[in-house]
Structures are given as C-alpha cells and as structure tokens.
Design goal:
By secondary structure, the protein is mainly β. Helix content is 7%, strand content 41%. The protein contains 6 helices and 34 strands. It has helices at 82-85, 105-109, 224-235, 247-250, 307-312, 415-420, and strands at 4-9, 12-23, 30-33, 47-51, 64-73, 92-96, 122-129, 146-157, 160-162, 165-167, 170-175, 188-194, 197-203, 217-220, 253-259, 273-278, 283-288, 296-303, 313-319, 328-333, 338-341, 353-356, 367-373, 383-388, 393-397, 405-410, 423-429, 438-443, 448-452, 461-466, 475-481, 491-496, 501-505, 514-519. The strands form 8 sheets. The protein has a 6-stranded antiparallel barrel with strand order 1-2-3-6-5-4. Strands 13-12-7-8-11-14 form a 6-stranded antiparallel beta sheet, with no helix packed on it. Strands 15-16-17-18 form a 4-stranded antiparallel beta sheet, with no helix packed on it. The longest helix has 12 residues, at 224-235. It is elongated and about 85 Å long.
Length: 523
C-alpha cells in the first residue's frame, strides 16, 4: 500500500524501525504511527519516512525527512515511564518535509483518513507492519511488509505488573495476525468505512506497547485524544496533555461545581475551573484553559479518596460568598448540615463555616438539587437556589457566612410545586445578556428549560432549550459557567450517564450553544 511505509535514519540505511501511515491533512504532510517508537531520548536527527519500502525497491516514492521538533505526541506519554502509565495514549503524528523535488508527501502517495470514535468491532480490518528480523543485532531490512485481513475487536484488561513496572490496563483495539514482531509497531489498523474506502482506526501500540505475542496486536483506541494530537501536529505546535480522565472515570463524578479556584495559576481570560466530587470522596480541580488545550490544562488533587466525603457529601456548589473574588464551596451533607469552605484553591481548604447545623428530621435532608448564581441579590455570584423534594424552590440571596435572605420562588403544595418535583437537575448562568443570571432546569422527561433573569419574584421568562426527549434524560449533571473566549457565564457542562463529558459554549435563549466534546466514551 502506497500510503504505508517505514522509518530509517538516513545515515544508517541498514536500520529500519516501526511503521507509519500517511493520513489526510491540510498540509498533506502528516504520518501516523505509535508514540513508543519515538518517546526515547536518543537523537532523532536524519530521520526519514519511506513510503511503500520493499527490499527489491527500497524507495519507490522517495524519502521524506522528519525533523525532531516535528514529532507530536501527548505530553503525558512523553514523560518518563509514560509507555507504561499511559498505554491509552500510544499514538503520534509526524510532519514530513517535502521531497527533494518539492513535492508533498500526500501528493505523491495519497492518504488514509482518520476514523475516530468508530467503535471496536470491525470485520475485514487490514493490518500492515514492517517486521524486524528475529536476530535483532544482525538486522538487515530484507523482509517485505506483513499484510493481514482480520477482525478488529475490543480487548479489556486490568493493570499488569512485569519486572517491577505496571502496565496500565483499559480497553484497546485488538487484532490477531501471525508473526507481527517488533518493527510492526505503528502499523495501521484500517477499517472498512464503506464504498471500498478505509479509515485509520488504530496503530499497533498501547498495552504492552502493542501486544504480548507476535500473533496478537493492540492499539490505543482512536478517540478525541487522537484528534487533539493530530490538530496540534497540523498546527505545528506540541499538544498539551489532556488532563481530563476517561469516560469510565467520569461515570463516578458525583457532582461538579464551576468557579475560580486557581487564581494564582495561569488562568486565561478569567475562565472558570471545574471542582469535581468523585464517588470515592476524592476532590479534584481542573484548571480552565483555551480551546486548543481542550479547555482544561492542569489537574490539582485537593484530597485523595476519602470515606467520610464518599459516604456523607451529597452535593457541592461554588460561588463568591466571602467577597474575595475567588470561589468558595458550599457542601450539603447527608445529616442536613450545610458547610461553607472559604477560598478553596489548588492547595485545598482554608477554614470551615457551618451555615446550618444538623438537626433531627432536618428540612435540609430534603434538598433535592442546588445551584448558585447572580439571581437578584447583588452583583456577586452568591445566591443559593434549592429545589426541595416537595417541589418548593427557595432562593437564599446574598449568602455569605450565614444563609442569605430567603425568597420562596415556588410555594409547596401548589400545582406549580407538583411540576417542580420533576426538576431533576438545576444549574445557572448568564445566557440572556442581562445583569441577572438564568436558571437551567433539566426535567425528568428530558425537557430543558432556561428561565431568564430568575430572581424568585413574579413570572420568569421561559425559554425552551429542548422539548421532552429520551437523550436528555441521560444528562446526569448540568452546570453553567464561563469556559470560552467571551467573558460571560454562558457555557454549560453536562456529564452523561455513559461518562461522556460535554461543554456547550456561547449559549443564549435559544439553546446551550456549540457542543465541544471534552471526553468521549468508548463504543
């Protein structure tokens, strides 16, 4: 296949290693391969890619130089021991120079498009790889590339310890082709995409850097992480590390609170951070960043898994309750206690204030949902909204070191309260452009409503974002915030039942805005 080739160091024509595939790109110059082929510290000068190399015709389409600074992989994989710790990130893209006559790589041999998020099950997958001879020390490039048609399938494994190091487990694409020894790393998994066309859905690598035997090969799953690194290669900039965990982990996100927790860090354009409460009690902050960095660029672990928080923390919300411009956290506990943690940052907690002490048969045990916004009290994000199990909706305006002024927005034991019993998720943000914020409600039937300038009084202007539908019933967590270029809190994060994490940017009265997938589940 013209688009598949191998790598040489031009100063050593007898040393061939790994396999690469020309993929479609705007610059017509990108080669996909495995990251473990290029993650070492040895010099990478004089590197060339040779498409369709064969011993009888060593360079039928010429040689394409790859400079060391034009090798792109996830920053985490490039870390020491990254091939063991981040087996799901074993992919890389290389940008090739034009041939000596000025012709670009893709113009010479064509390309294969990326097939991202295509699932695992694909019969008729074509797998190609350039093997090294069994006698590694006496290697000479005499073998033609191996070419196999097989079924691609899903392989899931736990962690594996070998010689004191741990291979990180997970889900990978698997193919079974005989004799795929060292050298075939980086070789393509080409799936049938219809109409006689194929797409690149994997490269040999991943768990145990591609397989435990010559007859079984793996690939890291080609998801949005692959696209992030590919986009960086196209732009000619090294990709940032994707700090967000995978979808399996996000299934365990108990709650998300958006706020400004990393004021001393590289906060860009005052973008919010995500504070996440996990089901095991771990607390994590993800620092807001640019879209190029998948909107989040650094992870801070506030505390590790903690049984007390796991068993007793019901919900967390963030706001500016102490007036220092940073974000404070309010936590509701199983016993009805409500606690304020002032000025939470990447270093952790800095004090504790009890807003409501636990009492027998406490009303706060019946708080079904909470959010915080700028909802009529003052110009700060310090108004706490609670939806109770009986359908009552209460605003506590100007909450600080005590609960604020109480306004009953929906009175219990009324027809409206019966409706509000079906408000599964509530969030808030500034979507309609006025000084006041809006309330977002996801109802049990999947309808999503934006109540403009919600302040608890009178009749709120209702904007229907989504009519009742099955899909939105799977939106588990819905929170508003500011994560995009503009300075408004008109963005929405949704965590779905399958662990997918979506960021919708620049919402308005018509809807939540553009969908930016942050974490995509494996199919």
């Amino acid at each position: 296949m013209r688009q598949v080739g191998t790598f040489f160091f031009e100063t050593d024509a007898d040393y061939r290693f790994c396999t690469g595939t020309v993929v479609a790109s705007p610059g017509k110059d990108i080669v996909a391969t495995a990251a473990h082929c290029f993650d070492g510290t040895e010099p990478k000068s004089n590197l060339v890619f040779v498409p369709q190399h064969r011993p009888q015709d060593p360079a039928p389409h010429g040689k394409f130089v790859v400079r060391a600074e034009q090798i792109f992989m996830d920053a985490k994989y490039a870390e020491p021991d990254g091939d063991h710790k981040y087996t799901d990130l074993d992919f890389a893209f290389l940008k090739a120079e034009p041939r000596s006559d000025g012709k670009r790589l893709e113009d010479v041999v064509g390309s294969i498009p990326l097939a991202l998020n295509a699932g695992f099950d694909h019969p008729g997958t074509r797998v190609i790889g350039y093997p090294r001879l069994p006698d590694m020390d006496g290697y000479k490039p005499k073998q033609d590339p191996l070419d196999c048609i097989t079924t691609m399938k899903k392989f899931t494994t736990g962690d594996k310890t070998d010689k004191g190091k741990v291979w990180k487990g997970g889900s990978f694409a698997q193919v079974d082709c005989d004799g795929y020894v060292s050298g075939t790393s980086g070789g393509p998994f080409l799936i049938d995409t219809g109409g006689g066309k194929r797409g690149l859905a994997g490269v040999t690598g991943g768990f145990e850097t591609g397989g435990h035997s010559p007859n079984t090969s793996y690939s890291s799953y080609f998801d949005n992480n692959v696209k992030r690194v590919f986009d960086a290669a196209v732009a000619g900039t090294q990709p940032p590390s994707n700090v967000l965990p995978d979808a399996e982990m996000w299934k365990h996100a108990e709650d998300i609170a958006n706020g400004y927790f990393t004021l001393a860090g590289a906060v860009e354009d005052d973008r919010m951070d995500m504070f996440v409460l996990w089901t095991d009690g771990e607390l994590t902050i993800y620092r807001g960043a640019s879209q190029r960095e998948n909107f989040f660029d650094k992870e801070f672990k506030v505390q590790g898994p903690n049984k007390f928080w796991a068993d007793h923390a019901m919900q967390v919300v963030a706001g500016d309750f102490t007036g220092d411009s940073g974000s404070d956290l309010i936590v509701r506990w199983t016993d009805g206690e409500v606690t304020l943690y002032p000025s939470v940052d990447e270093k952790g907690f800095h004090g504790e204030v009890q807003l409501h002490k636990p009492e027998p048969d406490d009303t706060w045990k019946h708080a079904a949902a909470m959010t915080v916004g700028r909802l009529g009290g003052n110009d700060k994000v310090d108004d706490l909204v609670v939806r109770w199990t009986d359908g009552e909706v209460t605003i506590y305006q100007n909450t600080g070191t005590t609960l604020g002024r109480q306004i009953i927005a929906v009175t219990p034991k009324t027809p409206r309260a019966e409706t509000w019993k079906h408000a599964v998720e509530i969030g808030s943000g500034d979507y309609t452009g006025n000084d006041g914020w809006d309330l977002i409600v996801r109802w049990s039937d999947g309808e999503v409503t934006n109540y403009a300038d919600f302040d608890g009084g009178g009749t709120w202007r209702e904007n229907k974002w989504y009519a009742p539908n099955e899909l939105l019933t799977h939106a588990v967590l819905v929170t508003g915030g500011d994560f995009s270029d503009n300075p408004y809190a008109d963005d929405t994060i949704i965590r779905w039942t399958d662990g997918e994490l979506s960021l919708y940017t620049d919402g308005d009265e018509k809807g939540p805005g553009k969908d930016n997938p942050l974490v995509t589940p494996k199919k």
